[in-house]
């Protein structure tokens, strides 16, 4: 390990650190100031003394070579197979064609911006561009924190695509009542009731077995979900934590009756199904919406409608976060549709002295 002083026509005097790596290859790095060279030499020495693997291979790695190694190592992580397939597809279609042959250590924010701009030129929307951004942020972030082949992440926050917030279609209380009356005694009634009264995701309804339903105590135990992309069950829900939901009385009564005539282990399975078939359920739900003359919603729209039901019964945002098993309150905020109506009603009742004109305006609907 040594530092050599060199003369360069372009840069003048430079200082070269030269050391043999753990793999027997020489590592050579050049600096404009001796103090920087000494600092780097000390870092390498400490890394070797602490048993670290020192190599210069990272200086030769291209983005494509790094991605393949990163993707292979990802088999040991917690990412689902569906998301891993998406990662490879994103690299193949967007990242690789633009910066795949670029040396890993040369990648900067301009390269990242080029990838995102390329996706925009192909007509990809903000959500898809955000997926591309997230893959690059994770990939290069691991290069900094996990593999230590980069000193900084070139995927900066400023380049993050902004996705316009869009409220999901949902049913207000009157619409829910019309829909539930319409589906009485018809196929997929139980699935619709579970999503409406318990706020379950469609995959959680597909997974739900009678062994998870405690009718004695009125509790649903949420233990897993069905992954449609991978066509398999997963023994934990989306948030990776088991949780429980107290059944509202009407749902409890419905499941009591349904249990007597159910012939399968899956609660929401229809006749001839081993478990709930999603696409048949979705098509039927939307047909019911047309027939009942209510807003057209998807299965996820029932989950949003459930928040209306619970907030009308007095639930707070924190209550909804627990019901939906959200990891943070910002996700729950997307399920709150009251637009200040509850606050308007509370404001009408804020009194200290009971001296108020009878002409005080009572707000029936929130003014937005």
Task: Write a structural description.
There is one protein chain. By secondary structure, the chain is mainly α. It has 2 domains: 2-159, DNA polymerase, domain 1 (Orthogonal Bundle), CATH 1.10.150; 173-358, Intergrase catalytic core (hpI Integrase, Chain A, Orthogonal Bundle). Helix content is 46%, strand content 10%. It has 15 helices and 8 strands. The chain has helices at residues 34-49, 57-60, 63-73, 81-99, 109-121, 126-145, 173-182, 189-198, 202-207, 249-261, 278-292, 299-312, 317-324, 329-332, 341-348, and strands spanning 2-8, 12-20, 26-31, 213-214, 219-222, 225-227, 232-234, 243-246. The protein has a 3-stranded antiparallel β-sheet with strand order 1-2-3, with helices on one face. The chain has a 3-stranded antiparallel β-sheet with strand order 4-5-8, with no helix packed on it. The longest helix has 20 residues, at 126-145. The chain is elongated. The mean pLDDT is 86.
